[in-house]
Amino acid sequence: MNGEFKRVGIVAKRGLRAAADHLDELAAWLRARRIEPVFDTDSATLTSAARETRSRDALPHDVDLVIVMGGDGTLLSMATRTAVSGRDLPILGVNFGSLGFLTETRIDELYTVLESVLKGEASFDERAMLAADAYRAREHFDSRIVLNDVVFTKAALSRIIELSVSVGAGLVTKVKADGLIVATATGSTAYNLAAGGPIVHPRADAIVLTPIAPHTLTNRPIVIPGSEVIEIRPQVVSGVEDIYVTYDGQAGYPLQPDDVVRVRRSERTLRLVKAPARSYFELLREKLKWGERGDRD
């Protein structure tokens, strides 16, 4: 039944004390099936059941499945690490609290879903990711892989920023705004949604470009084919820290004049274990409270 799964990585949201008892129970459940749980070093502090530990960076190299217990932010951090490892690892996201767009399995569904994974009966979502490469003075200086988005924003006290945006070999526009979001279909329900961008089904081969509070109201979100390469050039007028780039909201840095960031679909994808009997549209209805009335007669 579990021939393909000898070691399972377990990552909990940092400081999530509510997960402690569940971590103990999960470790015992796995060991009863001759599967060794491997905790990341932070999660190991929440349980006495941890025998093997790894850093979050090292964990994807040493396990056959990753279970994330927490929220979408914790899963995003492991999605990037899994992609960087070069391994095609499935990730099972378990939510604590409100249902997540990525951590869509509830804690009371954990063992049913996990059993289906071990039996080879689980369904998976293949989610596209973005690869971003940054250049300074024409020299490559940074590479990232993200699941949700690459975001260009202004510093707290900056005025409106200007970004030159090209798709393929052609200039699209010069965006004057508080920022710009380059999102995957998966990331369309994250910052992109809050900024007024469209919801894109995760199976759609598309990339979304959404300006944040654009100076020109006709500067609207654009959905482009996933095969395109997007090039963003910050138009820095003064100072070297006016424009920041952030990756999945996890890390980032200020851009300098003449820096270039190229974003394209990554060769890596993320395999997410699907929750049982819950479609994407059911998830949308529950998260966005579609069909609910704020007041009732």
Structure explained in plain terms:
This protein has five helices and 18 strands. By secondary structure, the protein is α/β, with parallel strands linked by helices. It folds into two domains: 7-123 and 274-288, Rossmann fold (3-Layer(aba) Sandwich), CATH 3.40.50; 129-267, Tumour Suppressor Smad4 (Sandwich). The strands form two sheets. Strands 1, 2, 3, 4, 5, 6, 7, 8, 10, 11, 15 and 18 form a twelve-stranded mixed sheet that branches. It has a six-stranded antiparallel sheet with strand order 14-13-12-9-16-17, with no helix packed on it. Strand 1 (7-12), helix 1 (20-31) and strand 2 (36-40) form a beta-alpha-beta unit.
As an assembly, this protein is single chain
Shape: globular
Number of domains: 2
CATH topology of the largest domain: Tumour Suppressor Smad4
- Tell how many strands the DSSP assignment holds: 18
Class derived from helix and strand content: alpha/beta
Comma- or semicolon-separated keywords:
297 residues; alpha/beta; Rossmann fold; Tumour Suppressor Smad4; twelve-stranded mixed beta sheet; six-stranded antiparallel beta sheet; 5 helices; 16% helix; globular
Strand and helix layout:
Layout: E1 7-12, H1 20-31, E2 36-40, E3 52-54, E4 65-70, H2 72-85, E5 90-95, E6 105-106, H3 110-118, E7 124-136, E8 139-146, E9 149-154, E10 161-167, E11 170-177, E12 179-184, H4 191-194, E13 206-212, E14 222-225, E15 230-234, E16 243-247, E17 251-254, E18 260-273, H5 280-288
Parallel strand pairs: 1-2, 1-4, 2-3, 4-5, 5-6, 5-18
Antiparallel strand pairs: 7-8, 7-18, 9-12, 9-16, 10-11, 10-15, 12-13, 13-14, 15-18, 16-17
